[in-house]
Amino acid sequence: MSGTRIVVAGAGAIGLFVGGLLAAAGRDVAFLGRARIAAEIAEHGLHLSDIEGGAWSIAPEVSEDPAVLAGADVVLVCVKSGASAEMGALIAAHAPEGAVVISLQNGVRNGDILRAALPGRDVRAGMVGFNVVALGQGRFHRATSGEVMIGTGPGDWAEALDVPGLVFEDMLGFEAVQWGKLLLNLTNAINALSGLPLREMLMDRDWRRVMAAQLSEALAVLSEAGIDAAVPAKAPGWAIPFILRLPTWAFQRVAAPMLQVDGAAKTSMVADLEAGRRTEIDVLQGEILALAAGQDREMPVMTRVTEAIRAAERDGLRPVAASSLLV
Ligand SMILES: NC(=O)C1=CN([C@@H]2O[C@H](COP(=O)(O)OP(=O)(O)OC[C@H]3O[C@@H](n4cnc5c(N)ncnc54)[C@H](OP(=O)(O)O)[C@@H]3O)[C@@H](O)[C@H]2O)C=CC1
Ligand SMILES: CC(C)(CO)C(=O)C(=O)O
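Above: the input record for the complex with ketopantoate. Below: its predicted structure, written as tokens.
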């Protein structure tokens, strides 16, 4: 890996955490990000922590100039889905043709969006299985456990990017991984609407009922569409709605691995709404609702969740009652 330059395209929660761990392990990492992040990191440095008690501090430079892509051997795309096309164009203009481009984004289409902007280049989809929250003053905390997975292709990039604190794996059949992650990400919206940290929400049976109802709707849609989804959980996808509906004492026993979430965890959609940004609802719930429309299928809970997020994008985030989302 020596002599290999990694460029993080989109220095936010995921980009700074993943790139930060790579830099802390001695990799050559450059960061492309916004002026406010560049200023925050220049003032405070970058301080990473995780649920297992890991802690890393480095002082990287975040550049606002896309020319930083020029020396890249690997580009890790870490922008929100709505910014993928624009980032793809910047990579096309500035990164070497031979650089491998890896999307570390949620949603199932970012790989294709980047491929369209980068014809003929090695573009891989990826999946980040953990949650990172920005705590301010250059501090970013991984609040759950989880790995990074990428689609297979030429060169063993997963091994090259696997460093202490960061598990990278490559996988055949990556589409199922992405759909499985999308199913998990349907929770992002519910977490935002609950107004609760992720762990507190998971401990509340009423909120778990909303999660279960929405997930059941989604599973029916994917099944009819013939789409395989490998949910990143110890239980198979079909069993998760049953587990979620259990009384809390039983849920705590059966779902112990799902509860490896510390009090700081809140999903990336919460961060978007708190910052007054548009969310990724269109590439998460929107993806399933589009399939459901083609199946003439009603999706009452997912539709309510989606409408509530659109209202929050418009009018600001106000917590709602779990019962208002159920039918
Ligand atoms: N946070 C999490 O825990 C997880 C997130 N993910 C996924 O990872 C992806 C990234 O999420 P996350 O890190 O939370 O997002 P963030 O919003 O924290 O980070 C993205 C950063 O990229 C910046 N950016 C966008 N376009 C450009 C550009 N052209 N040049 C420079 N900087 C740019 C954004 O700035 P601005 O906002 O001003 O556009 C923002 O600061 C998403 O798809 C998300 O769903 C996956 C797993 C977990
Ligand atoms: C929390 C997690 C890991 C799953 O919903 C996530 O992907 C996010 O915050 O976007």
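Notes for the reader.
Residues 174-194 form the longest helix (21 residues).
Residues 106, 130-131, 184-185, 187-188, 267-268 surround ketopantoate (ligand 2) (CB under 6 Å).
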